[in-house]
Amino acid sequence: MGGADIERLIALLARLPGLGPRSARRAALALLRQPQARMLPLAQAMEQAARSVRTCSTCGNLDTRDPCAICTDPGRDRGVVCVVETVGDLWALERAGVHRGVYQVLGGTLSALAGTGPDDLNLAPLLARLEAGGVREVILALGATVEGAATTHWLQDRLVGFDVPVSRVGQGLPMGGALDVLDDGTLAAALTARKIHS
């Protein structure tokens, strides 16, 4: 087929989510056909992002600054914190445009199989915000998976002592569904139909 460099490119592309070996080959071919227009700008953008993008110490989002643009936006409602599993989930909710508060990215969910426990979740910044006061609602926007449900129940129990209403996204999320692959309308319906749990 090609040389070792092409095989390495295909192998690296195939590691990306959503790309298998065939899709990786097609992507590599598209890049290699126009290296000046496609490949070199992509390589430069990836190198720049690798140097400049960092994790927000407040919410766990990825941005070129810390705190991130969402956390420093004066137009955001800091009294409403939406808890999500991943940065992809945060980006999906931002794309839907239905949440004008701030976020907390957990970085995973509780999973005995994966060996993920409470100490592995990025929960400390949320607890610090709750202890500081000013939070009026915590929205639990975790996926409708077994792990997401377990984490939601654990968080509801963990947050009881803060005397802050805790809601969770409602209808619209299919069982087994991940937030970052749902369409904007489904996300909007799920966030709008959230329920308060006491």
UniProtKB/TrEMBL annotation:
Residues 79-174 form the Toprim domain. SMART domains: TOPRIM. One of its GO terms (molecular function) is zinc ion binding. GO terms for biological process: DNA recombination; DNA repair. Keywords: DNA damage, DNA recombination, DNA repair, Metal-binding, Zinc, Zinc-finger. It comes from the Bacteria. Gene3D superfamilies: 3.30.60.80, 3.40.1360.10, RecR Domain 1 (1.10.8.420). InterPro entries: DNA_Rcmb_RecR (IPR000093), Rcmb_RecR (IPR023627), Rcmb_RecR_Znf (IPR015967), TOPRIM_dom (IPR006171), TOPRIM_RecR (IPR034137). SUPFAM superfamilies: Recombination protein RecR. A zinc finger (C4-type) spans 56-71. Belongs to the RecR family. May play a role in DNA repair. It seems to be involved in an RecBC-independent recombinational process of DNA repair. It may act with RecF and RecO. NCBIfam families: recR. This is Recombination protein RecR.
